[in-house]
Amino acid sequence: MPQLNPSPWFFIMLTSWLTFSLVIQPKLLTFVTMNPPSSKVPAAPSTTPWTWPWT
Questions:
Q1: How far apart are CA 28 and CA 40, in angstroms?
Q2: What's the pLDDT tens digit per position in 3-47?
Q3: How does DSSP assign the chain, residue by residue?
């Protein structure tokens, strides 16, 4: 069964993951801006209980 032979495919997978992890990912992460931390205290949402029409 040629699908079980990892000889050519393992090297291709390893090369593509190393390329992504070491080259592409750092370049992409420079464009992603994180939300700045907020100093406000999060307010609890006011919820009202649901009135079921059949009870």
A1: 30
A2: 677 788 889 999 999 898 888 888 888 887 777 777 888 888 888
A3: -GGG--HHHHHHHHHHHHHIIIIIHHHHHTTPPPPPPP-SPPPPPP------TT-
Phi, psi of 15 (to 5 degrees): -65, -40
Give the whole-angstrom CA distance, residue 33 versus residue 48: 36
Cα(12)–Cα(14) distance, integer angstroms: 6
Q: Report the distance separating Cα 52 and Cα 55, nearest Å.
A: 6
Cα Rg of the chain, angstroms? 26
- CA-based max dimension of the chain: 66
Whether this prediction's pTM lies above 0.85 is answered by no
The residue assigned the tokens 């029409």 is 53
